[in-house]
Design a protein that fits this description.
globular; Rossmann fold; alpha/beta; 13 strands
Length: 267
């Protein structure tokens, strides 16, 4: 069997028979993403399955929600719209959101790292300023919810730090995190994560139980994780003990056992 075919067989299991990421580098990244307890209570928005998320109860004053990646569920966005937020949705793979609300504003485009009208691509910065320029106030507070099937890394590389700071709460489903074990993939993914962590702290993680964890360097890395972040100026540090799964966590896939968040992400 050729080396190429051997690698192709092992890759889906998160096994890379190539140069793996150094233990110190991988440990440093996981440490930087470790959950920071905050005094704000976590609430659940969205359905009791994939598409529902835990967020800090710190929504007062947030006027806008940007939600790239619509697919077949907009329950979270609907709940936010009922709270009075203007909801901006984008997804080229669907014709419209599955539910309708007067506060919904949909564009049939993919959020990407560059603008390309012919391919239906737009950057997050361009989309934001297209929707809110001229802004109704100097620095409107917003929420970002993004589930775009691995494109989150290119979007984070491209987004301006100024725009990142306008999002008080950020919810992202990170995909293919098991590939952080690969040294080449790590060099592409880690800088995007570090950029996000400059302005925001992780306050909750829920591993998606569709796939198992990867074990490497005494760490356990779920392939996909729903990560909730709070802007650091809103964080209210506390020494409360974190328990996982959180009472409001629900399995993404009810046909598989719940995947408990490994302790390296919070202990």
């Amino acid at each position: 069997m050729s080396n190429y075919l051997f690698r192709q067989m092992l890759a889906p299991a998160g096994i890379f028979p190539e140069k793996t990421t150094k233990a110190t580098d991988l440990r440093a990244l996981v440490d930087s993403m470790r959950i920071k307890p905050t005094k704000q209570k976590l609430i659940r928005l969205g359905p009791k399955h994939d598409g529902g998320y835990l967020i800090p109860e710190d929504l007062d004053g947030i006027k806008y929600c940007f939600s790239p990646g619509v697919a077949g569920c907009s329950d979270l966005e609907l709940e936010l719209a009922k709270r009075g937020m203007q909801i901006f949705l984008a997804d080229r793979s669907v014709e419209a959101p599955p539910v309708v609300h007067s506060n919904f504003h949909f564009q049939k485009k993919f959020i990407a790292s560059s603008n390309c009208a012919t391919e239906g691509l737009i950057t997050l910065d361009s989309w934001y300023h297209e929707m809110l320029e001229p802004p109704s106030d100097v620095s409107p507070e917003a929420l970002l919810q993004m589930d775009i099937e691995s494109s989150e890394y290119e979007v984070l590389h491209n987004i301006s730090e100024k725009l990142l700071r306008r999002f008080r709460i950020i919810i992202i489903e990170f995909h293919k995190l098991n590939q952080l074990a690969n040294r080449f993939a790590f060099k592409l993914m880690a800088p995007a994560l570090r950029k996000l962590l400059k302005s925001h702290a992780v306050v909750h993680i829920h591993p998606n139980n569709h796939r198992k964890t990867l074990k490497l360097h005494s760490l356990e890395i779920p392939a996909n994780m729903e990560v909730t972040l709070l802007r650091r100026d809103r964080l209210q540090p506390t020494k409360k003990t974190l328990i996982f799964p959180h009472p409001l966590d629900v399995s993404c896939n009810h046909s598989k056992p719940e995947l408990i968040l490994p302790k390296c992400w919070y202990a």
